[in-house]
Amino acid sequence: MQLLNLNKIVEQVIEMTAPRWRTMPQSHGITIEMQRELKSGLPEMIGIESELREVLTNLVINAVDAMPEGGNITVRTFSKKNISAETKTASPSHIILEICDTGVGMDEETRARCLEPFFSTKGNSRHRAWPFNGLWRCRATRGRH
């Protein structure tokens, strides 16, 4: 574990995944827009950089897969503050990362099962995260950070 700049990792992942969300769809006449809403001055966090990068990559790819006709992905970071009862001052207590897309969403069955380790909607495709599904891995990693 080490101190990490989440915004820096987000920028790296957006750049690293650009072929998947920009280049490949554009070659088929599809446009996917990537919007960043990254809070400046975000405090550093303690974590494992490679795990966070993997989680972010999985979430971006899942968002792309949910938008076969194109759409928007928004990546947002911000901190949540707690107010001390003793000093009446606010200090960051959590760093929040949100990834939203305008994709097709999940049906009820998928939503109920999406965090199971071996569940996938991708069948035997090359995009399937083996041996564990991407959302399960995201949840497991989140628990360590």
Question: Can you offer a commentary on this structure?
Answer:
By secondary structure, this protein is of the alpha+beta class. It has one domain: Histidine kinase-like ATPase, C-terminal domain (Heat Shock Protein 90, 2-Layer Sandwich), CATH 3.30.565.10. 36% of the residues lie in helices and 26% in strands. It has helices at 6-16, 18-26, 49-65, 108-113, 134-142, and strands spanning 2-4, 32-38, 45-47, 71-83, 90-101. Strands 2-4-5 form a three-stranded mixed sheet. The longest helix is centred in the middle third of the chain and has 17 residues, at 49-65. Residues 128-132 have low confidence and may be disordered.
CATH-defined architecture: 2-Layer Sandwich
Give the SSE string: EHHEEHEEHH
Number of helices: 5
DSSP strand count: 5
**Domains counted in the coordinates: how many?**
1
CATH superfamily: Histidine kinase-like ATPase, C-terminal domain
Would you give the CATH topology? Heat Shock Protein 90
Low-confidence stretches: 128-132
Q: What is the approximate shape?
A: globular
What strand line-up does the widest sheet have? 2-4-5
Major β-sheet annotation: 3 strands, mixed
Mean of pLDDT: 83
* Assembly type: single chain
Helix content: 25-40%
Instruction: State which percent range the strand residues make up.
Output: 25-35%
- What is the radius of gyration computed over CA atoms, rounded to a whole number of angstroms? 17 Å
The structure class reads alpha+beta
What is the name of the CATH class? Alpha Beta
Distance between the termini: 9 Å
